[in-house]
Amino acid sequence: MSQHTDETAPPRRAGSPRPSAPAPAQHGGLAQFAKRAGLLVLFGLGLLALLLGLGSLFTGTAFGTAVGDADRGMLQWLVERRTPAVDATSTVLSGLASTTTVLVAGLVVAVAAALLLRHWWPFALLAIALLGELALFLTSATIVGRPRPDVDHLDAALPPTSSFPSGHTAAAICLYGGLAVIVLLVARGWWRWLVVALAVLVVLAVAFARVYRGAHNPSDVLGGVLLAVPWLVATTLTVAPTAHDHRTVALRRSAPRHR
After folding, report:
1. How far apart are the C-alpha atoms of 130 and 108, rounded to whole Å?
2. pLDDT number for residue 232
3. Phosphatidic acid phosphatase type 2/haloperoxidase domain spans which residues (predicted)?
């Protein structure tokens, strides 16, 4: 009779470690982030082209003349209704997005969020949002060169930049909106939407203050919104995958292990 030999794998000894599963691919690494950042630069150039086109429309066409007439009508209506109390309040509200406030608050919040979350992505989000907004604002304002509104200004001296787009409005969106984005990405409670609502209120308050004080036309504020909102959204999409991967790793590390 022929003998049959069964070839079977030796049984795993009790207590020996199980074979480790291959590590999942890390999609939030610096290399992937750099690729997304390159696309963000291209988006920024397209956004700049849009701002320059809109600025040319406002300053060199019949449509722009009609927009300017509407701007002057709204500004004059506000000027005629100024009061000392609102004047003082508008000074504070305008200061919420001054250059000093944005730079100092942005740096403090970015560093604090990065240290708290033990990752670089919060710093990257705010830095890219604010520095990119500043570059887009300065470039478009310099090229468009729209004059400031022809009304009485409450500010003793206005910034040397031109009127379009509103830099204060754009900076407020990127600073306070960026902070709200960080909260949305790391928190899961209902209260995070209160942070978003507060950020929206601050932006609206800053925009109102700039128009009320005669520093900008309403259409300049619109330009600031069209600059900052798409830029902040694009910046968030660039950084969010890294934030998601970081949060996933943190949750896995904090999850209880069962033997």
Report:
1. 13
2. 97
3. 124-236
Are 143 and 55 in contact by the 8 Å Cβ rule? The answer is yes
Please enumerate in sequence order all residues whose Cβ is within 8 A of that of 172, keeping only pairs 6 or more positions apart, or say none: 96, 97, 102, 202, 203, 206, 207, 228
Where does 32-251 sit in CATH, by number? Answer: 1.20.144
Label each residue of 67-130 as H, E or C.
Answer: HHHHHHHHHHHHHCCCCHHHHHHHHHHHHCCCHHHHHHHHHHHHHHHHHHHCCCHHHHHHHHHH
The angle, 0 to 180 degrees and rounded to 10, between the axes of the packed helices 192-212 and 84-95 is: 120
251 secondary structure, DSSP code: H
Calpha distance 20→235 (Å, rounded): 36
pTM equals 0.82
User: Which pair of tokens denotes residue 205?
Assistant: 């308050």
The answer for residues whose C-beta is within 8 angstroms of residue 79's C-beta and 6 or more apart is: 151, 152, 214
What is the pLDDT at residue 145?
A: 93
Q: What is the mean pLDDT of each successive set of 10 residues along the chain, which is 259 residues long?
A: 48 51 49 84 96 94 93 95 96 94 92 88 92 96 94 87 94 96 89 95 97 96 97 91 55 47
Q: d(Cα 220, Cα 217) in Å, to the nearest integer? A: 5
Nearest to 78 by CA among 173, 218, 206: 218
CA dist 79 and 154 (Å) reads 10
The answer to whether 93 and 206 have CB atoms below 8 angstroms apart is: yes
